[in-house]
Amino acid sequence: MPTTATDTFLGTGLIPFFAPETAREQNVKISASKTLKLGDILAELVGNNEVQTITISATGGTFTVTYAGQTTTAIAFDATAATFLAALEALSTIGEENIAVTLASSVYTVTFQNKLGLQNIAAMTTTATGLTGGAGTATVATSTAGSSGTRGEFDTYDPDATNGLEIPKAICKYDLTTNASKVVTINEKTQLAAPVYTSGYFSTKDLRWLDANAITKMGGRLISGSIADGVFSFGV
């Protein structure tokens, strides 16, 4: 559970709308070279798993997939997701349970996970000379690039992100900046972390980037009014 933080900065930070004694705080690291405002909705930069797709355009034949120098056995143009998964897991450069596979409309979606998760993955390649009919192609694309992230590091909530910033968790208590070394400056005082709220009741007028998605993902609710003018609670 978050612990209550103690801060001694000059100036006024964000004040809960009511029952400030029930609000909880936590000191967290902030990403480098940032300017944040009190009331900013924040999320944790946890990284994400890479997702690649292989699209088959053929009516017969076989193809192979190569990853990190190893090539699968021949895979039928209409192989099930389970068969495709087994062929890739047989490669020692992938192994069991390090990918997940789904299939829809001749598109295999490969999500790298576990030992191959939370990192940038080299693109797979294919050999499609065994395919017949249609375009006779097996095309690889990266739909989501993997990244390692930095657990415990926070940045502004972004509903369109795929690296953890799409999952809001906290509210910035002070106006602050960070330098390239992630040192936090608040009212001319510096330290290595910044206080954020992890629960409480807040006026929505004081919050930036609050939207319906953020409310849902924070497990919060509007207890009166609207996103533009109301009272929002989370974690309490």
Structural key phrases:
5-stranded mixed β-barrel; Virus Head Decoration Protein, Chain: A; elongated; 236 residues; 5-stranded antiparallel beta sheet; 2 helices; mainly beta; 6% helix; 20 strands; disordered N terminus; 40% strand
Describe it.
By secondary structure, this protein is mainly beta. The protein has 2 domains: 20-47 and 150-234, Virus Head Decoration Protein, Chain: A, CATH 2.40.300; 51-144, no CATH class. The protein is 6% helix and 40% strand. The protein contains 2 helices and 20 strands. The chain has helices spanning 81-89, 212-217; strands spanning 24-30, 35-36, 41-44, 51-57, 60-67, 70-71, 75-76, 99-104, 107-112, 125-127, 131-132, 137-144, 153-156, 168-172, 176-178, 184-186, 189-191, 194-203, 221-225, 230-234. The strands form 4 sheets. A 5-stranded mixed barrel has the order 1-13-3-14-18. Strands 5, 6, 7, 10 and 11 form a 5-stranded antiparallel β-sheet that branches. A 4-stranded antiparallel β-sheet has the order 2-15-16-17, with no helix packed on it. The radius of gyration is 24 Å and the shape is elongated. The two termini are 13 Å apart.
